[in-house]
């Protein structure tokens, strides 16, 4: 009796096992079918306009037109948002001389954001009737009319030698912004004894005679020098490795002369030199 019950029990379980196996097989089939359909959907999506970039947004640009940046990226609204490597796009845009760095971000599902940091404008090169903005990278931008000059950077005058200009650019880059903003014009005024001599007109009315060699170091002591002077009595400050000397103009006509040869001898004062800590 016991053996008969065991046999009946096993026979009853066989259909249940078959049903469980069938359900498991169905679940496996549904999973593989769903996965296959998912892959097909991805392929269709990537090949269809649904994956195209809808909008390319550019931010951070001041000197470089948005159109030039987008053109350098070689992307358009007919490009799939997944059809490129971000690193390659960034490298392509960074080839633009005015661009310092780039960050490209996908704004899913359809938008692309390009954030650029441009090289800082540190001066304008005088071109006669116009000015060429000069960037810290050494690149010059499209000429602008002198009437549009807003005093946002010093004007470089008589710099015809590229080598000398490149040396000055290196020195200007190292200057703190607050010191750079104190310079109105820089004249290249070489002599036999100093082929790197420059003459600066400052916005506070003083003039400065120094050298491109050590320019950054010399300019850093300028605030401590002018603090010892009477702001109402302009003159010429000469700074070199030996120190600083102030020559007070004997009359107003002696000032603002870039030729450096007609200064009347005025009162001369040796000044204390201390580098500004800012």
Automatic annotation (TrEMBL):
- Residue intervals passing through the bilayer: 29-46
Record-linked InterPro entries? DivIB (IPR026580), FtsQ_DivIB (IPR050487), POTRA (IPR034746), POTRA_FtsQ_type (IPR013685)
The UniProt keyword set, sorted, is: Cell cycle, Cell division, Cell membrane, Membrane, Transmembrane, Transmembrane helix
Gene Ontology BP term (one): FtsZ-dependent cytokinesis
GO CC term (a single one) = cell division site
Membrane topology listed for this record: Single-pass type II membrane protein
Q: Which Pfam families match?
A: POTRA_1
Q: Which family does it belong to?
A: Belongs to the FtsQ/DivIB family. DivIB subfamily.
Task: Please state what the protein is called.
Answer: Cell division protein DivIB
Q: Which organism is it from?
A: Halolactibacillus alkaliphilus
Gene name tied to this protein: divIB
């Amino acid at each position: 009796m016991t053996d008969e019950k065991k046999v009946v029990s096993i026979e009853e379980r066989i259909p249940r096992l078959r049903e469980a196996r069938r359900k498991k097989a169905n679940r496996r089939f549904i999973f593989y079918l769903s996965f296959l359909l998912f892959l097909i959907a991805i392929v269709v999506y990537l090949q269809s306009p649904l994956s195209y970039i809808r909008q390319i947004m550019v931010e951070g640009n001041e000197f470089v037109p948005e159109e030039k940046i987008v053109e350098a990226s070689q992307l358009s609204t007919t490009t799939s948002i997944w059809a490129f490597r971000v690193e390659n796009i960034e490298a392509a845009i960074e080839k633009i001389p005015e661009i310092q760095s780039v960050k490209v971000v996908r704004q899913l599902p359809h938008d692309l954001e390009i954030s650029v940091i441009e090289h800082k404008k540190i001066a304008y090169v005088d071109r006669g009737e116009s000015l060429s903005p000069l960037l810290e990278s050494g690149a010059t931008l499209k000429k602008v009319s002198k009437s549009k000059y807003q005093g946002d950077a010093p004007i470089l005058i008589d710099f015809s030698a590229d080598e000398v200009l490149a040396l000055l650019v290196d020195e200007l880059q190292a200057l703190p912004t607050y010191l750079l903003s104190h310079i109105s014009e820089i004249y290249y005024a070489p002599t036999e004894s100093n082929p790197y001599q420059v003459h600066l007109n400052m916005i506070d009315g003083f003039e400065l005679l120094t050298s491109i060699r050590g320019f950054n170091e010399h300019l850093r002591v300028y605030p401590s020098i002018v603090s010892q002077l009477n702001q109402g009595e302009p003159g010429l400050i000469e700074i070199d490795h030996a120190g600083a000397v102030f020559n007070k103009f004997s009359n107003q006509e002696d000032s603002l002369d870039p030729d450096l040869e007609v200064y009347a001898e005025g009162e001369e004062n040796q000044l204390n030199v201390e580098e500004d800590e800012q």
